[in-house]
């Protein structure tokens, strides 16, 4: 896998990954991604592979154990290893991504996460960026569903997309998503842990904003099992909590900056 891809090759890769994720999920998707060269992509071009793969996981609603590969790679372990590393979860709790799980826990967003009583600190900066892109992808999926509904749903003789209240909710969601994406693309050169923490917090906040606003736009149909929105809402609620919730991370960042007495320059605008 080349370290850099031209625009045409990147578009082809994205199309292939999207089609694969729309048809496969879980262990089957793990296998397909391995065959597509996921390990080489993560090793040679993580700055391209991570945003692309995790954003598409969010947009398609599928899942794979690639997050554990990001953690393994960042901690110097072998990509694809089956070692179980504890991941911090909201509320000072811990979970483990169970690669060999036969089923998934519906209470954990349909992800093969297993709750653990205790864990130990590991490097999570790169994983927070990955989950941030996953959250952004899920937020874009919800925005797309809400936008299409607004165009299709007619009230008082015209599409509800023409109503100012609907347009404001969709616009607020788009602004939150775009802001989160900008934060996720800040180079992790200086203060990488703080950058990753803030990026994950921004992505979580954007996804929760999308869930709230898109549910309002879709109204009752968004609660039904027949509509796809509820799958994305459940997923982002879990992903927000994984590796620290947006609320917790924001408080942690604020506490650290207050103790430091100054704010570092993380991006040059």
Please give a structural write-up.
This protein is mostly helical. It folds into two domains: 7-116, no CATH class; 124-260, Up-down Bundle (Butyryl-CoA Dehydrogenase, subunit A, domain 3), CATH 1.20.140. It contains ten helices and five strands, in the order αααααβββαββαααα. It has helices spanning 7-23, 27-35, 38-44, 46-60, 66-74, 125-152, 164-184, 192-218, 229-241, 246-260; strands spanning 86-89, 93-97, 113-116, 154-155, 158-159. α6 (125-152) runs antiparallel to α7. The chain is globular. The mean pLDDT is 91.
Layout of secondary structure:
Blueprint: H1 7-23, H2 27-35, H3 38-44, H4 46-60, H5 66-74, E1 86-89, E2 93-97, E3 113-116, H6 125-152, E4 154-155, E5 158-159, H7 164-184, H8 192-218, H9 229-241, H10 246-260
Antiparallel strand pairs: 1-2, 2-3, 4-5
The H/E string reads HHHHHEEEHEEHHHH
Shape: globular
| CATH H-level superfamily title of the largest domain | Butyryl-CoA Dehydrogenase, subunit A, domain 3
How many distinct folded domains? 2
**Averaged pLDDT:** 91
The helix content is 55-70%
